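Problem: given the chain below (332 residues), write out its structure.
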Amino acid sequence: MRIATYNVEWFNTLFDDKGQLIDDDSWSSRWDVTKAMQTAALGAVFTAMDADAVMIIEAPDTNSRRSTIKALTHFADHFGLRTTDALIGFANDTQQEIALLYDPEVLQAAHDPRETPESPRFDKTNQRDLNVDAAPDAIRWSKPPLEVAVETADGSLRLIGVHAKSKAPHGAENKADAMRISIANRSKQLAQCIWLRKRVDEHLAEGDDLIVLGDFNDGPGLDEYEKLFGRSGVEIVLGEGGEHKLFDPHARMALGRRVGAMPTTARFRREGQPYLQALLDYVMISPGLMKKSPRWQIWHPFDHPDCYENAALRTAVLNASDHFPVILDMKL
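Solution.
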C-alpha cells in the first residue's frame, strides 16, 4: 500500500465554484506559474505517485458555494486517477482544507472523529495554560485534524491528517512585536501538538495501527525559540516512551543532528535571496506498522534520484507546490 501526504500550495485557486478546473493562462497564486502550468504539474505528480491514498494539505475550500469533494473528484476524473473518492472532516474558514483522496477499490475510508475528557474533538476548544498564569487559555485548531477510519482487505488502519499552526510572526510591525508573536504562536502550536499526542496515546493504548501525517510547520532546530520550550511539536507528537513512540526516519535524522545535511520537504522562494528549505512534512507510523517493511520517500526534485533524472517530473514537482510529496510504502 502506498500512502502519501502532499501540501499543495493554493490548490483552491485552481477551481471555480462548481469544482471545475480553471485550466487557462491566468496566473496562479504561485510565483511565475500559470493555472494551466500548475494544473498540469499536479496532474503529472499525482499520476506519477500512483498512491492508494493521499492526505492533501491545503485542499480546495468547502463553504456554502464550494465543495472540496466535488473539486477533488473532478480533478481525479480530469487526469484519469484511480483515487476517485475524497473525504474531508471539519471544514475551516482558511480556504485550506485537509482532505483524503483515495482509491475505493483498495480501501474504504470514513471521517471518524474521537473525543475523550482529556482530548476533546478537534473542532472544539481545549483549555490549557500557555503562559503559566494559572488561567487556562482556549486552544483551537484553525484547521482541525482529519481523523480517518480505514478498512482494507488486510485489516483496519487509522489516519490523522494534520496542518499545525504556523509559527511565522504575521502582522508584526517591528522586531519586538515579531518576537512576541513568534513566542505566542509557538506556545499555541505546542499546545495543539500536546492535544494531538493525547489522541495518539489513546489509539496506541487500544492497539490501533496509526499513521499521523501532514504539515507540522515545525521540527527540531527549526527556529531560535525552540530553546525556550525545550522541544519541538514534532518531538511531542512522536512521543518519548519506547514502545509508544511513533516513527518517521526523516524526523529521526533531524533529531540526531543539529548541523550538516538534513532531509527537506519544502522550498520557499525569497526575493533576491537563496531559496529557504525546511523539513515540515512527516508521515509518522505506530510500532505495529514498523513490521510491515515501511519505506519512506521525499520527492524532492533535486535530492530524489528518480525525480531529478526525470526532467518532466522534476519540473512538475517544482511547478505544482512549494512542498514536495512524502510517500510511505508498506507491505500489508
